[in-house]
Design a protein that fits this description.
Blueprint: H1 2-8, H2 13-22, H3 25-29, H4 32-40, H5 54-57, H6 67-78, H7 83-93
Helix pairs in contact: 6-7
Length: 114
């Protein structure tokens, strides 16, 4: 945790909140915590998976680190209404065996969404 805080050099409360969200086994297993720190401090360029994702993921430097980020992306790109994204976040956080084959292993760790 201390090493991540040094790498991130948080300047706002939102930065501390991001540290807490990223300091979990799922995001740490793919080094998302260091990607966030590098993008925040300008060591890596901020990249978005689509040009329109900038308005949705600008505050998290192009990374989906919160469940709300997943829901906003689902609303924007899949056209889901408010209740539907909630059901799309569940497989990301607590997948049932054999369900949601499109969800990547990166986000399927049960511990990453607690």
């Amino acid at each position: 945790m201390r090493q991540l805080l040094k790498a991130m050099a948080p300047t706002t409360f939102e930065d501390v909140s991001a540290v807490l969200a990223l300091y979990r086994p799922g995001p740490m297993s793919v080094n998302m915590h260091y990607d966030f720190a590098d993008r925040k401090n300008g060591r890596k360029p901020v990249e978005y998976f689509h040009d329109d994702a900038k308005e949705v993921l600008d505050d998290t430097y192009g990374l989906m680190i919160y469940q709300e980020s997943v829901m906003r992306v689902a609303q924007k790109f899949a056209g889901y209404s408010s209740p539907k994204p909630t059901t799309s976040v569940r497989p990301v956080c607590r997948p049932a065996r054999g369900s949601s084959p499109g969800v990547t292993a990166t986000y399927r760790s049960r511990r990453s969404c607690r």
